[in-house]
Amino acid sequence: MRVKCITNRIDGLNPAIRDRLMQSIILECGRIDDLRVGSVSTVYAVECRRDGGTWVFLNTVDKSEYPYPYPMEMFEVVDDSIPAGWSISFGSSAFGCKIRHLGFSEWTSDPHFYERLLDGDPDAVSKYREWKYLANKTDSFSE
User: Could you tell me if 40 and 143 are in contact, meaning their C-beta atoms sit under 8 angstroms apart?
Assistant: First the structure.
């Protein structure tokens, strides 16, 4: 799955979307500086958040050991294929069952995977590196 950045500015989005995002993102200039408009990125996971928003996890920072979450409203999907080995996890909401995560199986089966990755947990880092390597070797999953 790959997405193309169509904006790096939150202040130009629909007011309802902008207000929702501003509760999650603190920006002084209304712009996310590590996003380049027109750039295409591999998606490592998709997360549906409690506020109703959908976020994609992208590796936009060189030499980073983990991907960063970005609101889907800032992208368009250019390749909607789901990589082999991905799975989906579900959670509950006030309206019933909802999708929680879509991504590689270690991420979707562990609700704390991303936090462990941020903390530098060796197992989480190793799994992410494996998936990133696979993503860069597979045509439908490469950047």
Answer: yes
Assess contact for 68 and 57: CB atoms under 8 A: yes
List phi, psi (to 5°) of 123: -65, -45
Residue 78: which H helix or E strand, with range?
strand 75-79
Q: Between 59 and 51, where is the model more confident?
A: 59
Question: DSSP state, 9?
Answer: B
pTM, two decimal places? 0.86
Judge whether residue 39 has pLDDT over 50.
yes
Cα distances from 89 to residues 4, 20, 39, 81, in angstroms, run 25, 24, 28, 18
Centre a 10 Å sphere on the Cβ of residue 2 and count the other Cβ atoms it contains: 20
From CA 83, how far away is CA 19, in angstroms rounded?
A: 33
CA dihedral for 131, 47, 71, 113, sign (positive or negative): negative
29 within 8 A of 87, measured Cβ to Cβ: no
Query: What is the per-residue pLDDT for 142?
Result: 41
Tokens 């950047």 correspond to 143
